[in-house]
Write a structure and sequence with these properties.
Elements: E1 7-13, E2 21-27, E3 36-40, E4 46-50, E5 62-65, E6 70-76, E7 78-85, H1 89-101, E8 107-108, E9 112-116, H2 119-125, E10 131-138
Parallel strand pairs: 1-4, 2-6
Antiparallel strand pairs: 1-5, 3-4, 5-6, 7-9, 7-10, 8-9
Length: 149
């Protein structure tokens, strides 16, 4: 599909509209942090992001554009991740501490940690009493302490 006019993404929408054309945009966790610039939708339509800088892109977000008939839907990309678990809560906490100390992004769930696949990190994890499984999932790392969310 090719649209003959420049599509500019301008803001988030709270409720999904009933009509209109939805352009899907699949983004990695890193790409979901960038709120300005050119992007290519899943159907290769070029769009321009001009979103307010105080937001963040989440899986399932619907974005408005400069054309009331077009919307953009954000889809989180499946990424190569390391799933970390342990029978010991304290060992999992120590692991989270050391990952954070290295500024590694971590998604924290009830009994597991997830981080991006990286052989250096995998090698470091061998120093802890944890189970490591390579997996492919959508990645939602914790926001920084200063993000106020």
């Amino acid at each position: 599909m090719s649209i003959n006019k420049q599509i500019v993404v301008t803001d988030w929408i709270k409720v999904k509209p009933r009509g209109g054309l939805f352009l899907k945009l699949t983004l990695s966790s890193d790409e979901r942090r960038i709120l300005r610039g050119k992007r290519l939708t899943d159907c290769d339509q070029e769009i321009i992001f001009q979103l307010p800088r105080n937001g963040k892109l989440n899986d399932g977000d619907i974005l408005s554009t400069n054309d009331p008939n077009f919307y953009v839907e954000i889809i989180a990309k499946t990424e190569n991740l390391i799933e970390i678990s342990s029978n010991s809560k304290i060992e999992l906490i120590k692991t989270a501490y050391h990952l954070g100390n290295r500024h590694v992004e971590v998604e924290i769930q009830e009994d597991i940690l997830l981080t991006k696949g990286d052989y250096v990190i995998e090698n470091m994890l061998k120093n802890f009493i944890v189970n490591i499984v390579n997996t492919q999932k959508k990645f939602f790392p914790e926001r920084g302490a200063h993000s106020h969310e």
